[in-house]
Design goal:
Layout lengths: L6 H12 L4 H11 L12 E4 L2 H9 L2 H10 L8 H7 L2 H14 L4 E5 L2 E5 L2 H31 L7 E2 L7 H13 L12 E2 L1
Parallel strand pairs: 4-5
Antiparallel strand pairs: 1-3, 2-3
């Protein structure tokens, strides 16, 4: 089973990513939404760029599916609600909770010639962009690194195996996800396999 198909792992990853939501971003969004002309449903797309050499590899992977699944799960963690309540009144916290719960369900991700465009309502775009950008940077970097390792062993991904530990749960997932997508086994297939 691929990692992306394991809903328990995706849920745990979501919880780690959700802990990255910043009160400061919510404060700026609150100030922005106070404008009488603010339309909370208007489209406010943002871009997740992919460098040319990696584009084809990433587009063939299930990364877009992962991003879409994670977007649907972005929420203020229950363990962090009190932090938000220390900065905002209960009504505003509830508005943010409901906005994330429902507006994330309509977010779409489309392939573009230079990456992915994430179409999302302005009410949540600035809230989810930092979380997705951080993940995206790590995913694209890891695809680049692991692809160069595979190239160095003549394209035989079975000559490698992943035994590295990420410095946090998100990094660990990214390494496992990319290795899985590139066909790298999680244990040596050959006696002279190269450890990553």
């Amino acid at each position: 089973m691929k990692l992306i198909e394991d809903s328990d792992i995706i849920q745990q990853l979501s919880e780690h990513l959700n802990s990255l939501l910043s009160v400061a971003d919510f404060d700026r969004k609150n100030d922005e939404s106070a404008s009488p002309s603010f339309n909370f449903k208007s489209d406010d797309p943002f871009f997740l760029p992919i460098d040319e050499p990696l584009k084809e590899i990433i587009y063939r992977s299930s990364y877009k599916q992962l991003v879409c699944e994670l977007i649907k799960r972005i929420q203020i963690p229950e363990s962090c609600v009190d932090i938000f309540r220390s900065e905002f009144d209960d009504e505003l916290v509830m508005i943010f909770l409901v906005s994330l719960k429902y507006l994330t369900q309509g977010v779409t991700v489309e392939e573009h010639e230079k990456g992915y465009i994430v179409h999302c309502p302005i009410m949540i775009s600035d809230l989810i962009m930092p979380v997705l950008s951080r993940l995206h940077s790590e995913v694209t970097y890891t695809f680049g690194e692991f692809s160069s390792y595979i190239e160095a062993v003549g394209g035989n991904s079975s000559s490698l195996f992943l035994n590295a530990k990420g410095y946090n749960a998100v990094s660990q997932f990214v390494q496992m996800f990319v290795a899985d997508e590139l066909g790298m086994p999680d244990r040596p297939v050959y006696q002279n396999a190269v450890l990553l």
